[in-house]
Amino acid sequence: MGGATIVPAVETSFTVNGQTVHMALDPRESLLDVLRERLGLTGTKKGCDQGQCGACTVHLDGRRIVACLMPAVQANGRAVATIEGVASPDGVLHPLQEAFIEHDALQCGYCTPGQVMSGLACIAEGHVGSDAEIREYMSGNLCRCGAYAGIVAAVRQAGRSGI
Amino acid sequence: MTAAAARPRVDARAKVTGAARYGTDRTPEGLAYAAMAVATVGKGRVVEIDTAAAAAVAGVRLVLTRFEASELKPPVYIMAGGHAVQSLQPLLSDHIAYRGQPIALVVADTPVAATEAANRVCARYEAAPFALELDDEDAEKLRQPEALPVPALADIAVGDAEAVFAGSEVRVDEVYDHPKQAATPMELLGCVVEWRGDTVVVHEGTQNAGALRNGLALQLGIDPADVEVISPYLGGGFGQKNSLQPHLGPVALAARRLGRPVKFVMTRPQTFHQGSFRPASRHRVRLGADGNGRLTAAIYEVDQETSRHDLFPAMYTEAMSRLYGVPNFSGPTRLVRVDTQTPGYMRAPFESPASFAFESAVDELAYAVGRDPVALRLANDTGTDPITGQPFSSRHVAECLRRGAERFGWAARDPAPGSMRADDGSLIGWGVAIGAYPACVAPAIAHVRAGADGRVVVAVDGHEMGQGIRSAITFLVADDLGIAVDRVTVDIGDTRVAPQHLTAGSWGTASALPAVHAALRELRARLGVAETGMLDVGAAVAAAGQPTVEAEAATLGPGQPPEMLDRSRAGKVAFTGPVYPGFTSFSFVAHFVEVRIEATTRRVRVPRVVSVVDCGRVASAVTAASQVRGGVVWGLGAALREASEPERRYGGFFNATMEEYVISVNADIGEIEVDFIDEPDPLLNPVGVKGLGEVALVGVVPAVTNAVFHATGQRLRRVPITIADLL
Amino acid sequence: MRAFAYAAPATVAEAVDALVALGPGAKFLAGGTNLYDLMRLEVETPPAVVDIHRLAGFEAIDTAGATELIFGAGARMSDVADDPVVRAEYPALSESLRLAASQQLRNMATVGGNLLQRTRCGYFRGGSQYPCNKREPGSGCAARGGIDSGHAVLGVSDACIATYPGDWAVALLAFDATIDVAGPHGERSVAVAELHLEPGDTPQREHTLAADELILRIRVPVSRAGAGSTYLKIRPRESYAFALASAAAGLSLDPGGTVSDCRIALGGVATRPWRCTAAEQSLLGGRLTTDAARRAGEIAFADARPGRHNAFKIELGIRTVAEALRIAAERAAR
């Protein structure tokens, strides 16, 4: 039983939070599993593995995507950003992270990394013109604890401060 | 500055940075990955199972279809005095009790190999007829008092409800249906299991590390001391993670056999078929009242599903019999066996569906007698527990209603259905409902260690699932000793530091805080300092001449015998309440809801909710408000969106994905205004807290459905209410 | 998931060649949000995929032309949704994209791939545990007589009642869009109206493209009805959900308020993007009154065949058409 994988591995290189990684990937592997299981970046969460919850939201070349629905080989040559890279290396939080804390925009915390990554993108896209717009553009991130009001307040605050 | 900015949730930083480690965030060296193949018949027997193709998948290390009872004993159901979410342990026999039951466990070097191999397992079945719903022919109906003959589950009966109802001036007699619902915490069920010599280390998001430890030990025939369960964070539990899951034993055995740590993450569809869920229930409510709507009698009959292999006790009448001062009450309860995994405790498991039925009926009564629904509720308030005749330890329902009505602007309501319109033509409806939830308490053991460095480390029973228990404990210690929050460390959800009783039923904080409070008294005694007041911890410890000073305290609920502590240490459920010697304790809430229903396409929106809660003293202002908002979000989903749909021909749950099981998204949620009475309960414990997490949800569903009635004149007695109902 | 070979060519020509070279069953993989998802469910099991998500020039958007708007098939849904010209002058197109999925998925999914999005029917996606003629021709249809509240009422057959789930193709259909495709034998154009198939007896055949053809671009003729348009999507929640019923409506009004051009297409209720020509005709030359809008909706659903739980889609669909027409008329009158 067992043995080497029969699928030709695909040499892939990309950056994660600025660090270059090279690996031989089974093309079936999702970016989510590669981040979590191969790179130990477990801040990105698995909530459905079907693109239906947003818990695995990361940035690809600066845009938010769900990592569960992307074969990791597609990241070749691209830049991936995860929650682990949001605060500065010396531990200073991003203003959106601060805003999440200030508005208690979380409970169990499991969806939170995805919410933060989505919120950062929402601000960068300019989709923070009104609470209704924020709600709509944050609706790809489910929160079963129901922290939505705090999430909207946090994105609004960070978005208005122009970051 | 927000309240949260002033005193943030203590683990918020770990959560916003991704640093918080949940059960399956562990990736130890040499990790292997498990996946499960599941039964595709509604009931029956596995006749033949072919694992050759699965075993041939590259990277596969194990394919397990059957364990011997000598290596894996079946567990005992948690509500039958054991540790497990159900008594049925898959992979012990060829019997298939429900669709989705595991038939094989595959372990491989990578997640893709494990998943592919699980898909390659091929089984042939002998199918048997099955029942999935209350009305199905094969669904077996049992009177609960006969099926479960224990005093706590006797049908509640005071006075002569039948006779008084029959003679009442005004009568309401209606039937309400509540569907199956799925807890769907964002964190999937799963674990990472690692053997270190004879010790098995389990990382799993659980509300009950003690049950996992003791239950797994019994299943494997090992000493509980050789099981460590580590669960500092859960990605939501909502009752689904309240005990030993059927996957843990097989995964632990696979890890031992392979000599490697094994990670198992259930697929989302599998969680719908293996995790516990809220069973469907049917409620017939008969209310008798005088012409002013003063309640004279209530007969509240409930049928609730349970599984074929376990009896999930139904306790719908406990809280509803205390909502109002109804002198004559009876609550005949039946269980209905269907062919699913054992259903279980999903947030406000009985109280939320019960409130939908009971508070809808009360609204119907208000319209029947032509009285304002708030005024009618106030007129039926009571300070005495009508079932025991004891006083409530505290009860501020009337204040919740008055304050909520004021904040909501209820006085402007035109009571006539369909009378209020928005500028865009939408129908406006305003609804109200109250809720109650038993204030229970479990034994707890707290250990406090103060250091000469001024730091205090607390270890206590409790699991952090987002409700904020870690914050509440931290704030209690900081405030009691007058030290900074960052000087306090709280270790919970970890069997290595303290026994871990089930955290559920909203008793977590109300159980842990008194124990910590008592341990702090003991610590002060050992330090030889005053019983209260600011303390220079470092100086006091140094003065004692030791690097650290430790203290421990165990607390019980009022009237609980000390042997309950042993029960808790054995990983069993040991709570008490809500009836205590001399008093009865419940938390209470009032919800006010505005719905707007589009004139044409009939989409229902909920722009605002006002909720006022009586949970005793508020232990942590920030996390408490968040919990209430979360409860409201749950209620809106239950009222308007959520139902698990059984597939009657194939078995199992049809809409078993996050797409098809529709929970609320951000855009569904409007303003939710939360207020607290914040009056300490004088009797339940020295800290004055009652439970909060579940009462927050109780009453939201009927407040919505009552608002829909007010908007449309349509009285809908089945949730969720959908567009199809309103066209 | 079944193992598959992977190729990532750089140009369209290389992609077409690569697909042929990889043999029967090979598929193009663009954003992956649908195909990779179905591969994980083992509903799709291609032995090989050709990754086209970064082909040179594949993402270009040109909305400045005098006669047509041109969208490269590889353009992301979010980019087309936010294109200023599309937003201002073709709100139905923009809304059909913005109301689809989530921003994360719209950042991944391409406007070409989205046209061929496969049904969300749970019996189809549920895999081999359920019979499904679309997935396994001849095996039967579990949806008929089953939980069909999400299923189609228009264009259904005895073999299949699965709903076409997309929004974008519905809006494109209303505006007479055309696609250009490339294959081993060169390029050709296909009207979106000719792209999708009703299930009939062969529900496994969902469109008229050959397996080795690649969508290059989408062309939408410039139209006055664009500005007077909307895409109204009714869902079980406010966002991030497929349609219970949806309608793309576009109108041009004479200065006097008479309807001179009218486009109506439906989503969420039919087995393919559904154009309502008779309903459109009923409005031409008259004023868009509330009654006329309702009647157009009724005409659109005149041939509806409901199942056990989806009859509500008929009344909901009629109201959705009427409401979409009302919004479109408001915009057209500006």
Automatic annotation (TrEMBL), chain A:
UniProt-listed Pfam families: Fer2, Fer2_2
Identification of the protein by name: Xanthine dehydrogenase YagT iron-sulfur-binding subunit
Organismal lineage: Bacteria, Bacillati, Actinomycetota, Actinomycetes, Micromonosporales
Pathway(s) served: Alkaloid degradation; nicotine degradation
Entry's Gene Ontology molecular function annotations: 2 iron, 2 sulfur cluster binding; metal ion binding; oxidoreductase activity, acting on the aldehyde or oxo group of donors
Domain 2Fe-2S ferredoxin-type: 10-86
Keywords: 2Fe-2S, Iron, Iron-sulfur, Metal-binding, Oxidoreductase
CDD domains: fer2 (cd00207)
UniProtKB/TrEMBL annotation, chain B:
Entries under SUPFAM superfamilies matching the protein: CO dehydrogenase molybdoprotein N-domain-like, Molybdenum cofactor-binding domain
InterPro entries named in the record: Ald_Oxase/Xan_DH_a/b, Ald_Oxase/Xan_DH_a/b_sf, Ald_Oxase/xanthine_DH-like, AldOxase/xan_DH_MoCoBD1, AldOxase/xan_DH_MoCoBD2, AldOxase/xan_DH_Mopterin-bd_sf
Gene Ontology MF, one: oxidoreductase activity
A family per Pfam: MoCoBD_2
Keyword Oxidoreductase: yes
UniProtKB keywords: Molybdenum, Oxidoreductase
Key word Hydrolase present: no
Domain Aldehyde oxidase/xanthine dehydrogenase a/b hammerhead: from-to ranges: 17-129
Protein name: Xanthine dehydrogenase YagR molybdenum-binding subunit
Organism of this sequence: Actinoplanes regularis
Lineage: Bacteria, Bacillati, Actinomycetota, Actinomycetes, Micromonosporales
TrEMBL record, chain C:
Keyword annotations from UniProtKB, A to Z: Oxidoreductase
Lineage: superkingdom: Bacteria
SMART domains, per database record: CO_deh_flav_C (SM01092)
Lineage of the species this protein comes from: Bacteria, Bacillati, Actinomycetota, Actinomycetes, Micromonosporales
Protein's recorded name: Xanthine dehydrogenase YagS FAD-binding subunit
Gene Ontology molecular function, alphabetical: FAD binding; oxidoreductase activity
Domain FAD-binding PCMH-type per the UniProt entry, residue ranges: 1-225
Classification via InterPro entries: CO_DH_flav_C, CO_DH_flav_C_dom_sf, Diverse_Substr_Oxidored, FAD-bd_PCMH, FAD-bd_PCMH-like_sf, FAD-bd_PCMH_sub1, FAD-bd_PCMH_sub2, Mopterin_DH_FAD-bd
Presence of keyword ATP-binding: no
Gene3D superfamilies xrefs: 3.30.465.10, CO dehydrogenase flavoprotein, C-terminal domain, Uridine Diphospho-n-acetylenolpyruvylglucosamine Reductase, domain 2
Keyword Oxidoreductase: yes
Pfam families: CO_deh_flav_C, FAD_binding_5
